[in-house]
Amino acid sequence: MSRKSHRQGEFPPAPEPLTVPVLDSHTHLDMVLEEARASGASAIEHGNGPATVVDAIASARAAGVDRLVQVGVDVPSSRWGLAVAREHSAVVATVAVHPNEAPRVSDVDVALAEIDALAADPRVRGVGETGLDMFRTGADGRKAQEESFRGHIEIAKRHGKALVIHDRDAHADILRVLDETGAPDAVVMHCFSGDGEFAAECVRRGFVLSFAGTVTFKSAAPLRVAAGVTPPEQMLVETDAPFLTPMPYRGRPNAPYLIPLTVRALAAATGAGVDALCAAISATGERVFGPW
Ligand SMILES: [Zn+2]
């Protein structure tokens, strides 16, 4: 997620459904519902977005997106995500304090202890989003951010859960910290934002690259090259909803039912068939976050 909002207008219309189901590997349903409330949601057909978790799941399923990973960004949203994952079989959760929140947390140890306790739950399948953000966090917050990142890596390893990484303008430092601490078995580079060279480096290390709506942006040619060097068994697709809405709806609010737009762009970028790609991404999702 990227907090700062440029979103305007209604939720986009539902795309043509996928025939082979796939997951949304990174979504913030709490913020999607907030967005929908702000737009006066009553029903998704009216372009106002999902009014409830049930709506969000149903509209995603109708688009061929049958599993969701709900991502926490602070202790309250992590708790909320776990509650949703316990109630809905289509949803699993990840828990964390976001790197842009980490410098603002009054007591990092207390927050990390909370995240550690939540991470023990069987419906929590990942620790994240955590990582480094050199774009929004200034030099004064970097130490706290890196300490928080290291704490989350420990928690992921302790519980054997996937590590979900937020990397904003911090490729080299992300790799440095993971080299210093030792990476968990499953590492997901959420909203992958590097070029082909960085993608190849992540692939070589066994990381999983999760591509968001940014891969559809006209300016994102290096990202499509990155997708091209990522084998399907190390590839995921995500919305990061309500952010990063794929073309042609960039700037409008995002939700899991819009995954087909991004997965079709990924298929075009990689030369894969859409069905085969969905099957491969589903298998990767099951390995990393499953079973649902
Ligand atoms: Zn996010």
If you had to describe this structure to a student in words, what would you say it looks like?
This protein is globular. It starts with 21 loop residues before the first strand and ends with a helix. Mean pLDDT is 93; it is low at 1-6. An 8-stranded parallel β-sheet has the order 1-2-3-4-5-6-7-8. The longest helix has 18 residues, at 142-159. Helix content is 41%, strand content 16%. It has 292 residues and is of the alpha/beta class. Bound molecules: zinc ion (ZN). Residues 1, 26, 28, 71, 129, 240 line the site of zinc ion.
Mean pLDDT: 93
Q: Tell me the distance between the termini.
A: 23 Å
Give the H and E element order.
EHHEHEHEHEHEHEHEHH
CA radius of gyration: 17 Å
Pick out the low-confidence regions: 1-6
What gross morphology would you assign? globular
Which descriptors apply to this entry?
single chain, 292 residues, alpha/beta, 8-stranded parallel sheet, 8 strands, globular, binds zinc ion
Summarize the structure.
This protein has 292 residues and is an alpha/beta fold. It has 10 helices and 8 strands.
